[in-house]
């Protein structure tokens, strides 16, 4: 019966698309609302165009993996800075709060009692799954609620969470024993916590995301379901990279405080591997579109993603073709002798440029596109897999040689611990996708839909 009702609803939808006002003329199908490209917060518009990609100067390493060629990239938006600790922490906190609210909601179901007429919920019941007001709902909304939002058992259920009630973190204010039981399961045991301070178990911070493998589907065809992918991964940065990356070196302050302390909020996040960077992009899209849906009259935005290698190099050049560095070149210092990026200028002398480790993401002068630290500070993940022959194989239009089985991913821009060679806009480097480093971060991009004439 439900299937018949849904089919009838679909028929009504299709037959209602016509209009008697078109007088039988070809007028096209127009959207009810006009599309306006909105520049995402914290991003800059990169107008797109053609440029000479690759090494245009000497290649002292003899890598021979970036010969010059002319390519063209489409317009896009790019973060003006690397993703900061503060911005990545918003993602981590969202995952944390989702886990807490899910566990509280299931505990509320387990501990549910028959409510007294007219009595307001208290204690753990305040965090029960969000109930939908079914008065006045459409047949479609009823169908979706009964067949999707109220199905499933345990963690497989997709019932809507209650985001209205504030989570109580102070143990002295926990409302009842059921709330205490849930929160106790989320924190480290006393014998694991340092100095007895309650510490959230970061191993629980797992995020699951889905995507559709467009390229594989286009190449091979077949059942759509065969190209749906998903991944579950822990999103907390690996803070131990400050120790593991450098043998016989004292970096404990960075290990303990870099991601946790507010002094480093505006510094680029590190210790994030390629998969975690992709998960952040997925969450950022999900978070923005959740807001867009809540307003009903706003359209969904294109997905945030990692830049391709070509997009990254085009953006790094800042409109300067044949430039060695984002500021032009050929020197890493200004005419006053001031360093123009955060890197290792002299062997063993990391602090010659004014910083031992990273600096705030909005440091030094931006390039011609308004982007900060496209050279130095931290290297940046790109979407592109590393292949020594990429420049020979790739298209000249939006080139991107991608292979899902190739775990070597391109990183660009050089970092605080690199010599000047890796700061050059044409220099290529790579790292394994599941590896995190104290000198690799990322920034995101978003496609610009349509064409903006200059």
Automatic annotation (TrEMBL):
GO molecular function, one term: formylglycine-generating oxidase activity
UniProt feature coiled coil, ranges: none
Keywords of this entry: Signal
Signal peptide per UniProt: 1-18
Ranges of residues in domain Sulfatase-modifying factor enzyme-like: 42-445
Alphabetical list of InterPro entries matching this protein: CTDL_fold, Glid_motil-assoc_lipo_GldK, Sulfatase_Mod_Factor_Kinase, SUMF_dom, SUMF_sf
Pfam families xrefs: FGE-sulfatase (PF03781)
PANTHER family recorded: FORMYLGLYCINE-GENERATING ENZYME (PTHR23150:SF19), SULFATASE MODIFYING FACTOR 1, 2 (PTHR23150)
Name recorded for this polypeptide: Protein involved in gliding motility GldK
Organism: Tenacibaculum skagerrakense
């Amino acid at each position: 019966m439900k299937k018949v009702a849904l089919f009838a609803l679909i028929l009504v939808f299709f037959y209602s698309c016509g209009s008697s006002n078109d007088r039988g003329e070809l007028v096209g199908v127009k959207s009810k609302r006009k599309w306006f490209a909105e520049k995402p917060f914290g991003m800059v518009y990169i107008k797109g165009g053609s440029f000479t990609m690759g090494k245009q100067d000497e290649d002292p390493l003899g890598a021979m993996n970036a010969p010059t060629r002319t390519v063209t990239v489409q317009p896009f938006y790019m973060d003006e800075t690397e993703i900061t600790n503060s911005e990545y922490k918003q993602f981590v906190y969202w995952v944390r709060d989702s886990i807490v609210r899910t566990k509280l909601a299931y505990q509320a179901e387990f501990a549910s009692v028959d409510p007294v007429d007219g009595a307001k919920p208290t204690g753990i019941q305040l965090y029960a799954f969000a109930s939908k007001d079914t008065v006045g709902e459409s047949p479609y909304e009823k169908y979706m609620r009964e067949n999707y939002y109220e199905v499933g058992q345990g963690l497989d259920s997709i019932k809507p969470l209650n985001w209205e009630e504030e989570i109580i973190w102070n143990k002295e204010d926990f409302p009842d024993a059921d709330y205490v039981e849930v929160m106790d399961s989320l924190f480290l045991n006393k014998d694991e916590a340092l100095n007895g301070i309650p510490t959230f178990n970061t191993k629980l911070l797992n995020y699951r995301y889905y995507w559709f493998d467009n390229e594989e589907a286009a190449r091979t065809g077949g059942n759509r379901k065969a190209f749906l992918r998903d991944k579950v991964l822990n999103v907390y940065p690996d803070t131990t990279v400050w120790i593991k990356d450098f043998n016989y070196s004292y970096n404990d302050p960075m290990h303990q405080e870099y991601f946790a302390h507010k002094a480093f909020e505006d510094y680029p996040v590190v210790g994030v591997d390629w998969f975690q960077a992709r998960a952040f992009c997925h969450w950022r899209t999900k978070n923005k579109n959740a807001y867009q849906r809540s307003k009903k009259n706003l359209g969904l935005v294109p997905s945030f993603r990692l830049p391709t290698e070509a997009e990254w190099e085009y953006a790094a050049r800042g409109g300067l073709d044949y430039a060695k560095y984002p500021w032009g070149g050929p020197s890493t210092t200004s005419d006053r002798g001031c360093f123009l990026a955060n890197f290792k200028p002299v062997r063993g002398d990391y602090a010659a440029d004014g910083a031992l480790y990273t600096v705030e993401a909005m440091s030094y002068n931006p390039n011609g596109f308004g982007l900060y630290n496209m050279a130095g500070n931290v290297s940046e993940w790109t979407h592109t897999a590393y292949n020594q022959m990429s420049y020979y194989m790739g298209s000249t239009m939006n080139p991107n040689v991608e292979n899902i089985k190739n775990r070597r991913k391109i990183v660009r821009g050089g970092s605080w611990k690199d010599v000047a060679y890796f700061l050059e806009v044409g220099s290529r480097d790579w790292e394994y996708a599941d590896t995190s480093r104290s000198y690799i971060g990322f920034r995101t991009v978003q496609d610009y839909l349509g064409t903006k004439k200059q």
